[in-house]
């Protein structure tokens, strides 16, 4: 596997970590760490125009980034990643922020379109950070505009919890 598709996966986690609830940034040095991918099966060429499938107990680690899914599908156009789709029940992504706080994202499907710079968390979507959480049937984030859209049909409700700073961080000087 070449490094470019692997870095796209790390970029996806970093972007998720920067857009929801708290302004903490994903651990910036994670992108410079080796990426380890374990799965039951890998299929594809990771060259030119191809679709590459990583399936069965997919576990990706890069620095503090940890992604677990049943399947990851990486699409390349002209040798560059154009889309990464994770599926599972659920896909779980965890990463530590630069400030040391944890971020966890869960969804039945996570779809990252690199061409439109849009990330979709689909089905039972949940993002948790130290300052709170957002959940709903679908969460969309446009990396270019910063726009977040949450919701979904069939009576799905979006729920957001924002904790006060004092509740999200341990009080200094107290035991």
UniProtKB/TrEMBL annotation:
GO BP term, pick one: Gram-negative-bacterium-type cell outer membrane assembly
Signal peptide positions (record): 1-26
Ranges of residues in domain Organic solvent tolerance-like N-terminal: 37-146
Alphabetical UniProt keywords: Periplasm, Signal, Transport
GO cellular component: cell outer membrane; outer membrane-bounded periplasmic space
Presence of keyword Signal: yes
GO MF term list: glycolipid transfer activity; lipopolysaccharide binding
Subcellular location: Periplasm
Biased segments, Polar residues type: 132-147
Region (Disordered): 132-175
Function field: Involved in the assembly of lipopolysaccharide (LPS). Required for the translocation of LPS from the inner membrane to the outer membrane. May form a bridge between the inner membrane and the outer membrane, via interactions with LptC and LptD, thereby facilitating LPS transfer across the periplasm.
Record's subunit section: Component of the lipopolysaccharide transport and assembly complex.
HAMAP family: LPS_assembly_LptA
Family note: Belongs to the LptA family.
Protein name in the entry: Lipopolysaccharide export system protein LptA
């Amino acid at each position: 596997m070449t490094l470019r598709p692997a870095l796209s996966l790390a970029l996806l986690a970093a972007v998720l970590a920067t857009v929801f609830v708290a302004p903490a940034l994903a651990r910036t040095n994670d992108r410079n760490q080796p990426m380890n991918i374990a799965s039951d099966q890998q299929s594809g060429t990771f060259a030119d125009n191809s679709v590459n499938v990583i399936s069965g107990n997919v576990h990706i680690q890069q620095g503090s980034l940890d992604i677990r899914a049943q399947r990851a599908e990486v699409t390349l156009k002209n040798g560059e990643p154009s889309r990464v789709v994770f599926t599972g029940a659920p896909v779980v992504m965890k990463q530590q922020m630069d400030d040391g706080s944890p971020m966890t994202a869960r969804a039945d499907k996570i779809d990252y379109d690199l061409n439109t710079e849009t990330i979709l968390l689909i089905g039972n979507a949940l993002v948790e950070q130290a300052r709170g959480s957002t959940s709903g049937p679908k969460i969309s984030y446009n990396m270019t505009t910063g726009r977040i859209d949450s919701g979904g049909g069939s009576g799905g409700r979006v729920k957001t919890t924002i904790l006060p700073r004092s509740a999200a961080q341990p009080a200094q000087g107290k035991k």
